[in-house]
Amino acid sequence: MDFELREIQRLDGHTDRVWCVAWKPDTGINGVPAVLASCSGDKTVRIWEHNSIGSFQCQAVLEEIHTRTVRSCAWSPSGKYLATASFDATTAIWENVGVDFECVSTLEGHDNEVKSVSWNASLGTLLATSGRDKSVWIWEVLPGNEFDCVSVLQGHTQDVKMVQWNPSMDTLFSCSYDNTIKVWVEDDDSDDWHCIQTLCESNNGHTSTVWSLAFDASGDKMVSCSDDLTVKIWTDVGRVQGSHNNAPWKHVCTLSGYHDRTIFSVHWSREGIIASGAADDAICLFVENNDNEVDGPSFKLLLKKEKAHEIDVNSVQWNSGDKRLLASASDDGTVKIWELVRLSE
Amino acid sequence: MIDVILDLKVVIHFVRDIRDPEHPYSLEQLSVLSEESITVDEKLGRILITFTPTIQHCSMATVIGLCLREKLKNCFPPHFKVDIKVAPGSHADEESVNKQLNDKERVAAAMENPNLRQLVDECLYSSEL
């Protein structure tokens, strides 16, 4: 079966590199127009909406809050809030009412650059942030747009590039310049959090900076990507085997030889397609390979889109709606919308 | 976009006059850089610069790297890929310096720091050697 990653539209507007894209949840489905947020070195966030004539248009520019690069952005599960993490050491919370976005809270605490922000999937009751100061912060979302820091997690020895909650349980994952991925859970008898597992070189982990990670729809599998030019797949054997386990996450396989410069972003679609974006200007798509059940799960390249952007691809994210839409962000200052289409035989 | 011819001579032309952050001399005068420090892959559009800090514990090695990166960014179209390293054995923290210089997020954050920005600009634009 042949597939093609077809460019639908290029979104111009940012005046510096675009670091991150995030689809608003439950858009692009059931007649709700797709909505995308993008953030940039130009200190702004742009909101793009798929309009009635079928093209994406910039609906809002969120500016004058962050004073430095906006490194990442994430929607709350309900889509009511957008959180933005900035090199200015703050995380801003924007409330979306109609087409308006109002900054309703600014979270301070990190010593310097905040690099990532993530809402927990269940109810959006917890927010995690990570930064250059090597720490991960967990915030409780309280009524009245209050955010209370419940824990500051120290464990990484270098800056923490990304935090991401597992989609099916309140387990937090962080990846770092120290080459590791850490798994964090809440203590049984207190509000505090601790690291239950570190995925590093000695357990088939990465050998350089881990830039990004993502989960499949069930939360049982994780994908990570690195400056070591590989993509790695992990599985939660603790949950699959139904037992408590001190080291629940196990390496499944390593995909190498597909990108020849730093891989910055990975994302897993609801139907199981992994997208990766890298400094070689390319986007790759991978799918599980069912031809070889004997040796356990393996993954194969579905396609590689060379020159997806003029320069580095910093972020890729699948829309979870009706169409196989993928958004990508680049150092070339643009966002692109792609559709994965099956070519007729 | 104007077609820039990518070759060794062009690259060395752009970087040779960068001033050292600590001394009133250019990187070339201090032998931090020479033509031998530069490798160019014209076909792939890749530039590798391997510079030699003046001393093993040079605290300015990352600043020199930032200067090189910034200068090349200003002189070449963005699709040229640039890698910057210290020469093997030339710095006590070789691995850590190399990793920092090639992490574009750390580079971007550094260039937003006003003090570092000023230091880099002084090295790039002060021609009164």
What can you see in these coordinates?
- The complex is a heterodimer of chains A (345) and B (129).
- Chain A has 345 residues and is an all-beta fold.
- In chain A, 1% of the residues lie in helices and 55% in strands.
- Chain A contains 1 helix and 28 strands.
- Chain A has one helix spanning 237-240, and strands spanning 3-11, 18-23, 35-40, 45-50, 56-62, 70-75, 81-86, 90-97, 100-108, 114-119, 126-131, 135-142, 146-154, 160-165, 172-176, 181-186, 193-199, 210-215, 221-226, 230-236, 249-256, 263-268, 274-278, 283-289, 298-305, 313-318, 325-330, 335-342.
- Chain A has a 4-stranded antiparallel β-sheet, with no helix packed on it.
- In chain A, strand 11 and strand 12 form a beta hairpin.
- The longest helix of chain A has 4 residues, at 237-240.
- The mean pLDDT of chain A is 94.
- Chain B is α+β, with helices and mostly antiparallel strands and 129 residues long.
- Chain B is 40% helix and 12% strand.
- Chain B has helices spanning 8-15, 61-75, 94-101, 104-111, 114-125; strands spanning 38-41, 46-51, 81-86.
- Chain B has a 3-stranded mixed β-sheet.
- In chain B, helix 2 links the parallel strand 2 (46-51) and strand 3.
- Chain B is globular, with a radius of gyration of 14 Å.
- The N and C termini of chain B lie far apart (33 Å).
- The A-B interface holds A 17, 41, 68-69, 71, 87, 112-113, 115, 132, 159, 161, 177, 208-209, 227, 261, 279, 281, 310-312, 331-332 and B 78-79, 81, 99, 102-106, 108-109, 112.
